[in-house]
C-alpha cells in the first residue's frame, strides 16, 4: 500500500479525501435527518440583474465544490500518495480512448436498462409508500435555486465529476484493498447516499441501483466513458422528460 501516515503529503491527501466524503456523502445523510427544505434565496424585491448575479454565483460555487471534491482530490491523491504520471492516472481511472465506440454503445444500452429500472422502482415505491409522486424528483427544489439553463449545465457537467470519483477513483482504490465485489457495492451505496436529498429516499434508492449498473458497465468495457455517457444521457433525458411532462400539466 502506498499510503504512509508518517508522510505529511499523504496526510494532506487523506484530509482532502475525508473532506470530499464528508461533503458529498456524510452531509447529505445529515441533511435527511434535519428535515429541512431548500429555502428560496430570491425575493420579489430583487431586480433581474441581482437574480442573475446570484444564480451565477450559486452555479460557480456548485461547480467549484464539485470539481475540487470529486476531481482535484483524487488527482492530488494519485500525485502525492501514488506518485504516478497523468497517463498512469488515466489508466487507473479507465479513462481510455481505445474502445470508445464500444464504450458509447454499452452506454446507450445502459441508459435503456436504467430507464426501465428507474420506472419499475418508481412504481413499486409509490405503491408501497402511497406517497405523492412529486417526491420522486428533487428538481422542484433545485428550481428554487437554478433556472432551466443552469439545471441543464449541472446535469450535463456533474455526471463526469461523479463518475470520475465514484466509478473511477473510489472503485479503483477499494478494488485494490477489498476486491471487485466489495468495491462495486461500496461505491454504489456511497453514491446512493450522496443523492439523499432531504426526505426523498427514492432518489437514493435509484442512485444505489444505478451505481451498481454504472460500475458493472465500467467493468464490462474497462472504460469509464461508458458510465460517463450513460450517466449524462440519463440525466439530460430525465430532465427533459420532466419539463415536457410539466408543460402538459403532468
Throw out a few tags for this protein.
mainly alpha; 250 residues; 9 helices; 78% helix
Can you put this structure into words, describing what you see?
There is one protein chain. This protein has one domain (8-247). Helices cover 78% and strands 0% of the residues. It contains 9 helices and no strands. It has helices at residues 8-34, 48-82, 86-93, 100-129, 139-142, 148-178, 180-194, 201-221, 224-247. The model has no long low-confidence stretch (mean pLDDT 91).
Q: What's the tally of helices?
A: 9
Secondary-structure element order, N to C: HHHHHHHHH
- Judging from the principal axes of the Cα atoms, what is the shape? globular
Q: Provide the gyration radius in Å.
A: 19 Å
Count every beta strand, where a strand is a DSSP E run of 2 or more residues.
0
The end-to-end span amounts to: 53 Å
Specify the oligomeric state: single chain
Strand percentage, roughly? under 5%
Low-confidence stretches: none
Task: Supply the helix-strand structural class.
Answer: mainly alpha
Could you describe the largest sheet, including whether it forms a barrel? none
Number of domains: 1
User: Percent range for helical residues?
Assistant: over 70%
* Whole-number mean pLDDT: 91
Amino acid at each position: 500500500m502506498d499510503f504512509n501516515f508518517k508522510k505529511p503529503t499523504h496526510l494532506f491527501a487523506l484530509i482532502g479525501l475525508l473532506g470530499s466524503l464528508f461533503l458529498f456523502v456524510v452531509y447529505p445523510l445529515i441533511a435527511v435527518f434535519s428535515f429541512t427544505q431548500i429555502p428560496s434565496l430570491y425575493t420579489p424585491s430583487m431586480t433581474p440583474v441581482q437574480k442573475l448575479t446570484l444564480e451565477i454565483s450559486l452555479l460557480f460555487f456548485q461547480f467549484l465544490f464539485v470539481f475540487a471534491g470529486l476531481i482535484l482530490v483524487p488527482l492530488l491523491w494519485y500525485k502525492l500518495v501514488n506518485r504516478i504520471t497523468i497517463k498512469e492516472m488515466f489508466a487507473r481511472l479507465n479513462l481510455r480512448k481505445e474502445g470508445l465506440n464500444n464504450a458509447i454503445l454499452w452506454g446507450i444500452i445502459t441508459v435503456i436498462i436504467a430507464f426501465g429500472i428507474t420506472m419499475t422502482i418508481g412504481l413499486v415505491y409509490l405503491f408501497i409508500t402511497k406517497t405523492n409522486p412529486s417526491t420522486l424528483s428533487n428538481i422542484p427544489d433545485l428550481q428554487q435555486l437554478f433556472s432551466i439553463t443552469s439545471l441543464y449545465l449541472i446535469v450535463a457537467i456533474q455526471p463526469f465529476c461523479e463518475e470520475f470519483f465514484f466509478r473511477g477513483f473510489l472503485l479503483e482504490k477499494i478494488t485494490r484493498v477489498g476486491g471487485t465485489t466489495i468495491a462495486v457495492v461500496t461505491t454504489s451505496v456511497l453514491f446512493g447516499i450522496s443523492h439523499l436529498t432531504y426526505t426523498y429516499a427514492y432518489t437514493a434508492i435509484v442512485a444505489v441501483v444505478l451505481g451498481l449498473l454504472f460500475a458493472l458497465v465500467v467493468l464490462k468495457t474497462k472504460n469509464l466513458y461508458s458510465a460517463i455517457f450513460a450517466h449524462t444521457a440519463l440525466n439530460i433525458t430525465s430532465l427533459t422528460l420532466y419539463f415536457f411532462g410539466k408543460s402538459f400539466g403532468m
